[in-house]
Design a protein that fits this description.
Elements: E1 14-21, E2 32-40, E3 48-53, H1 62-68, H2 85-92, E4 96-99, H3 103-109, E5 120-122, H4 123-130, H5 139-145, H6 149-155, H7 164-181, E6 196-197
Parallel strand pairs: 1-4, 4-5
Antiparallel strand pairs: 1-2, 2-3, 5-6
Helix pairs in contact: 4-7, 5-7
């Protein structure tokens, strides 16, 4: 069940999600190869982190592997996307879901019709509204501008950008940093305007 946009931000639970994909040639359907979720049940707590590789029935393209470092061989023995559904549902149910331009995340989750996750917060749209003048709005650039990259590397020293869990946590920290910096914790979700989508 989707949360109403009248809910107060600091009273909500949040789950940030990111997928890395196998890549797809023109006309082909892309497939997820890694998922990361960073979830908080209360505003100030450290996030609960979960990640998994995902089996795919097609090889990971070289162009995709060059970005995230995941190869077809690394997916040997990984669970199927369908088998992870229960875990994904447990992490995302009754939360406000966060992603940085989460079109890919929403598309992959549509494989499970009727899941009802949301509302969604797009930290790319939020950063563009609240941090004008950045040279670009990539996840890394926004995190650097907010001085939160060091927190991510302390939390996950073995990970970096384009790892699904690292990127999910970055989206969560960006959201929390912007909301706290603007003192919006006691405001309703719909205060976030175009950054929030049903």
């Amino acid at each position: 069940m989707r949360l109403p946009l009248s809910r107060i931000i600091q009273e909500c639970r949040f789950a940030a999600i990111d997928f890395e994909s196998a890549g797809a040639a023109p006309g082909e359907t892309d497939q997820p190869v890694q998922i990361g979720i960073a979830r908080i049940g209360s505003w100030q707590e450290e996030p609960l982190l979960w990640e998994s590789y995902i089996a795919t029935d097609k090889p990971v393209l070289w162009s995709a592997s060059k970005i995230h470092g995941i190869t077809t061989e690394m997916l040997a023995g990984a669970p199927s996307f369908l088998s992870l559904w229960g875990t994904i549902q447990n992490h995302l149910a009754d939360t406000v879901v966060i992603g940085h331009n989460p079109a890919t995340e929403r598309r992959f989750l549509r494989r499970f019709p009727g899941h009802g996750f949301g509302p969604w917060i797009d930290t790319l749209a939020l950063a563009r509204m609240c941090l004008p003048g950045l040279p670009d709005y990539s996840l890394q650039s926004v995190a650097d501008a907010l001085d939160i990259t060091h927190h991510l590397t302390e939390l996950m020293p073995e990970k970096s950008w384009h790892n699904a869990l690292f990127d999910a946590a970055a989206s969560l920290f960006i959201f929390r940093s912007i909301v706290s910096g603007l003192h919006l914790e006691a405001s309703p979700l719909d205060t976030l305007g175009a950054a929030i989508k049903q």
